[in-house]
Amino acid sequence: MAGTSAGIVAALTAAALGTVGFLAFRAQATVPANLTGRPGAGASAAAAAGKAPRDRRDPTALPSASGTGERVVYSVDDDRVWLVDGRERTLRGFPVRPGSVDPAPGTYWVSSRSNAVTGTDGVPIEHVVRFTTVNGVTIGFSAAVGDGGQAVPDPAVKTGGIRETRADGEAMWNFATIGVKVVVIR
């Protein structure tokens, strides 16, 4: 009987170790690459890291994990914006030049708009579409009047303006009315 008990204990121990090993493997498969120092496991790792998967054939294509419905999609890492209608069609995609303060990935809504004001960097801007505030800095899309706001911003000044060309700014203005969803991704 003692031999049988020892065999049962050994079998249960082996089963427990196998289960723990399997669970550890599954947990490791979803850890983002930036935490493990090596590439993660496909889309789950990209999503866990806040980075939406991209179409490798077309880097300007709308990221697949960027929400649903009518929305503005802003990629902080790619400095790019997409305007997406309610039927999941990209109406326009364009590069932008962000300010010195980035919004966190997440879902926001257009909260205010101004046709023409002066930006925190002192540049006259138009078609301002605001959607959040980070540490007292208002974040929003805008187009600079005049030189297009292409001057290098002063790093000592905290700015939240995400600058577009005037043509892209007009498209944003016409699309992103109060309450339109803004999805920020890495």
Please provide a written account of the structure.
- The chain has 186 residues and is of the alpha+beta class.
- It is globular and about 40 Å long.
- The N and C termini lie far apart (62 Å).
- The chain contains four helices and nine strands.
- The protein is 26% helix and 30% strand.
- It folds into two domains: 2-42, no CATH class; 66-185, Beta Barrel (L,D-transpeptidase catalytic domain-like).
- Residues 37-51 have a biased composition (Low complexity).
- Residues 34-69 are annotated as: Disordered.
- It comes from Streptomyces lucensis JCM 4490.
- This is Secreted protein.
Shape: globular
Helix percentage? 25-40%
Structure class: alpha+beta
Q: What's the CATH first level of the largest domain?
A: Mainly Beta
* CATH superfamily grouping of the largest domain: L,D-transpeptidase catalytic domain-like
As residue ranges, the low-confidence spans are 11-49
> What is the string of helix and strand elements?
HHHEEEEEEEEHE
Distance between the termini: 62 Å
Rg calc: 24 Å
Number of strands: 9
Query: Helical element count?
Result: 4
The count of domains is 2
Largest sheet: 5 strands, mixed
Strand content: 25-35%
Strand order, largest beta sheet? 3-2-1-9-4
- Under the CATH scheme, which architecture of the largest domain would be assigned? Beta Barrel
Biased composition (Low complexity): 37-51
Region (Disordered): 34-69
Protein name: Secreted protein
Organism: Streptomyces lucensis JCM 4490
